[in-house]
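G., the chain you wanted modeled:
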Amino acid sequence: MAEALIIDGVTKSYGTEVVTLALRGIDLAVAAGEFIALTGPSGSGKSTLLNLIGLLDRPTTGRIHLDGTETGTLDAEGLARFRGRRIGFVFQFHHLLPEFTALENVMLPAFADEGRISEETRRTAVRLLEEVGLSDRADYKPSQLSGGQQQRVAIARALARSPALLLADEPTGNLDQESGDQVFRLLRRLNVERRITCVIVTHDDRLAERCDRNVHLVDGRVDFDKQVRGVG
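Predicted structure as tokens:
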């Protein structure tokens, strides 16, 4: 199976006079269509690694290949274009724009990329809201939606550009268990049906055991990388 993500000897440090080494040599390969959990204690480097994979930051040393592209060769404009078209993001806090409806929020990535809203963009957004079970909430603003519904809108938004890779940072961390399970099942279903490669950061061991692999970080290193049963 082709590899969607290859991380080769990646380190990340911060500071000059006092240097903090957040990642200490990460090697990781993720096959296309895999569903990976990144786990570990606070401060282990999970979110730092996710930011590097998502091209929100650059590694201090090492290389990251995404979807066949060596991302270190891209300039700032190239990174932004690649990120917008090939990577979808879901965060713990949904970051929906409160003045826009659910449908408008889902259309925002296309507007940011193209500078306009086409009829195809609107049709895609309508279809995505239907796919996440919110076709009847298209005209609702975030304040009119539950936390779980807001996160489902955020997932639809993340899929708006048909990304090859979906990154989720504690996507269920701000939800009650029932809503969190619904969001996780939705991510898992989309992973299976669309064959989207997914990497999620989670503190929830129960969810990590329902992924394909659990990559556990400690002190900026991979402590273990194990296959798990992987149920939805």
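The radius of gyration is 17 Å.

Shout if anything looks off.
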